[in-house]
Structure formats: structure tokens, C-alpha cells
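Entry for the shared binder. Reason: the reviewer on the internal report wants the predicted structure included alongside the sequence.
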Amino acid sequence: MTPLVQIDDQLEVSSQTSPDWVRISYASALALRFKSGRFQRPFDFGGINLLLTYDQGCRSDCGYCGLARSRQGAYEDKSFIRVEWPLVGTDELVDRMAEHEEKLTRLCISMVTHGYAYRDTLEITRRIRSRLATPLSILVAPPTLNEERLRALKDAGTDMIGIGLDAVTEELFRQIRSDVPRGGLKWDNYWNIVHQARDLYGPWKVNCHTLVGLGETDHDLIGIFDDLLERQIFSYLFCFNPEPDSRMAEHPKTPVRRWRRVQLAKFLLEECGLEPGAFDYDDEGTLARIHAPAELVERAVRDGHAFMTNGCPSAGGEPGCTRPMGSWRPTEAPRDYPWQPTDADRAAVLEQLHLDEILRPGPGPGPSRPPERWAPPAAGRPAV
């Protein structure tokens, strides 16, 4: 049995903690009219994100996270992904979601590492399922789970499981998430939960979050995309953007050119039939060449889906969880698009890519992966 989280402090209980209270993303607060405001660009938004909340917060201490245990300030004042997450009553939230259900596409409960996280996630799942049929994902905290608990969450009505791997190599994971002042997360524990969830939920019902910019190489990233693809597990891609006051606050933001190239390579690998051998790297592990037909690559860029947010689908297969501002600040141009990219968006992406530097359309592997080994087209879109 996978070891569960160990809590070394006495847990506090207040009237505004989970399961009776949760935090919701600022985008969710706008969509459900808990907050007034508008998005940078009008679009249909229906992916509601919930975050468990406790007086002592998350017991992990990841170097890049705004909720890190050793980050300065009271937990209730900490930001997460650089924006406010308003506190709301769970029952009021369920009522509000039921009222707006025809516009909702995907719900997601994000756990934190805490002794009560599993118990409270199960309770919140049951409350949601008593009122709503909207597809429900859970972004899990592996130290709190084992196979029996994963099965209970599935039986309660969740249809997808996400694991926030973030760091894509064991060495980086250990540096940023294990060997930290007040942490101790284990790489093997995370992968045990990945495998158990895959066995229980089935193909393309599990996803791993991966971050570009923590110190990994492009070769590391494309390697893990391929490993997950072979296991029929989605890889959801995020772009590192420093969280103020975190231990990685001074770590440089991912350059947009690198980010766009990784997005493109991931899409070509997963949905266009390229094998890992279609990509060459320099001595630093940076993507240097893509060997593929020019028309295939240019069509992928024109299509634009390679540069949209990776997230769980809606019941009909359309984009479900689009996480506006998950990889970029509200005042910045989008790093991943929660909407179908416009002509202007695609023109900007093409300029950022500098394809002439990396595309080699001559003899090379081309699309050689058989279709049965492709990822299903994300968000219900046709394959390129």
C-alpha cells in the first residue's frame, strides 16, 4: 500500500475550511458571478476549478508554488498561479454551479497535501454529484492516496485523474519538491499513483501535468511526452512563470520561443504521428531540428490547436478545462490560448517560432507512428 501523508503538526479546525469551504479560481468566480469583471477577450468559459483550503494550508513545500508551506505570509493571503482564489461556501458553490450547469463544461477539484484532503475531496465529490452531471476531474495529492482511495473517488463519480508531476526528471523533482525545507514528496510515490490511476480509470482518463522552465531540457520533455503517450496517459503542458516570494521567484521565466517550440513538438508527437527520432537536439538538450514534411508542420501551426490550453474535455469532447491565465499573467499576452486562436494569434505564434531555424523538411522519419499509437485528438478536434 502506498504510504499516506504524515502530518507533524496538530491540525487546526475552523469554520472556513474544507469540506464546507473551498477556494475557486478567479476565472471561475467571474463565470459564476461571485466576482465582477471580464476576461481579457470574451469567450465561452465553463471549466470550474476548486481548491481545498485549510488553516495551515498545504503541507508540501514545492519551490515554485505560491501555496508552498515555507512561503512567507498567512495561507489565506497566498496567491496560487499568481492570481486570487476567492473563498466560497461549498454548498453555495454547488447551488451556483447547478444554476449555471448548462454553461459548464468540466469541474475539477484540486487537492493539497493535508491529512484531511482525501476525506474532504470524497465528501465534496459526493455533494457535487448529488446535484450536477458535469464531468468531474480531480487533481490529486499522491501522498494522501492509495489504490483503495482512488477507487472510492472513481465510484463517487469522478471520470478523470490528474497528477501534478510538474518536474519531468527525478533529479529535478528531488531538488524542487523532495529535498526542500519543509517538504518531502517522493518521485516513486507519484509514479505509483500514476500507474494505479491508469489501471483503474483506463486509457486517456489520466493526465500528468508537466512544466516547461524548471531546469529540464527539451530532450527531457519530449522523452516524457513519448513515455506517457505509450501508456495512453495525457501530458498537460504548463509554462513556468515565477510566483512572487516563492523560492524560485528569481528563476527566469520560460522564453516564449522555447515554449512555442515545445508546444509544437508535443503536438507533432502526440497527434501527427511523429516519432521521437524526428527531433534532434544540441549538446545542451535543446530542440535543434524537426525532421518532418513542411506542409504537415505548417498545417499544424495554421490549425492553432497545438497552442491551446491542454485540459480535460467536456462531455461532448469539446474543450472542458481551459484554465485562463494558468501559464501567463492577466496583463500578458497568452502563452496558451483558452480559445481557438485567431488569425492574429496564429501570426504571432508563427513569428515566435522562427520555424526556418529548426524545420528540416527533407529526407527524414516523417509521420511514422501508426494511428493506433496516437493520442486521441484533444478537445474533440479532428486530427491534423
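Summary line for the report: The chain is about 30% helix and 15% strand.
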